[in-house]
């Protein structure tokens, strides 16, 4: 299926010659195809349907996904969500390749609605740039697994900035960057979650506390991870990683930490 907002066609079929003019149309068509058993099936499950995004799109409302879908960008299109909107992935898979995802909220209406939410889901990001301005956490995972490859996540908040909050989930990030700014900032907040970080750069620009990770009954394996803390008030502050006694955090020599008072603190 194809999406092109700039297309001029009298009939929107989702084909190359007659593409849909909104992402919502394509998602609805994917749901119809799979629910009518018109999509290929592998191992008893519907295979993901590919949606080729050929232009920037604006999405006003949340996109609810209950069927597997791949969003493939051509020439790095931008998906801009309206306030309080994002992808909601329930018991299915979402793959995004070669796209930017953006959302800006008003600070006068603070709330915590992620731009990407997964519940019992599988989410894969490849060459994706996610940017959120206000609005709370960038990503929330519940009983889900997520992979990031050559991807960037950026959060700019007046208050607390959390990039990925995960519970009973798994995260694998490779060659990706994570940046957060606010009063306090946290890249990863894990509860009963397993994480693997390889060749990662993290930048925290905060007024007060900034941390790479907080772990509760979780584990993180790191290799070639670089994380910096900068503040206009403090030269160094807190620990890069806070973990409880049930958690396991591997901090080999390839992990470079700048601006933190300590590398790891147990609570």
Structural class category: mainly beta
**Helix share of residues?**
under 10%
Number of helices: 1
State the major sheet: 16 strands, parallel
Question: Separation of termini?
Answer: 50 Å
Radius of gyration: 19 Å
H/E series? EHEEEEEEEEEEEEEEEEEEEEEEEEEE
Strand portion, in percent? Answer: over 45%
Number of strands: 27
What is the molecular shape?
elongated
Structure description:
The chain has about 270 residues and is mainly beta. It is built from one helix and 27 strands. It has one helix at about 25-35, and strands at about 1-5, 40, 45, 50-55, 55-60, 65, 70-75, 80, 85-90, 95, 100-105, 115-120, 120-125, 130-135, 140, 145-150, 150-155, 160-165, 170-180, 185-190, 195-205, 210-215, 220-230, 240-245, 250, 255-260, 260-265. The protein has a 16-stranded parallel sheet that branches. A nine-stranded parallel sheet has the order 6-9-12-15-18-20-22-24-27. Strands 2-3 form a two-stranded antiparallel ribbon. A hairpin with a 2-residue loop joins β2 (about 40) and β3 (about 45). The longest helix is centred in the N-terminal third of the chain and has 13 residues, at about 25-35. The protein is elongated and about 60 Å long. The mean pLDDT is about 90.
Record keyword descriptors for this entry.
267 residues, mainly beta, 16-stranded parallel sheet, nine-stranded parallel sheet, 27 strands, 5% helix
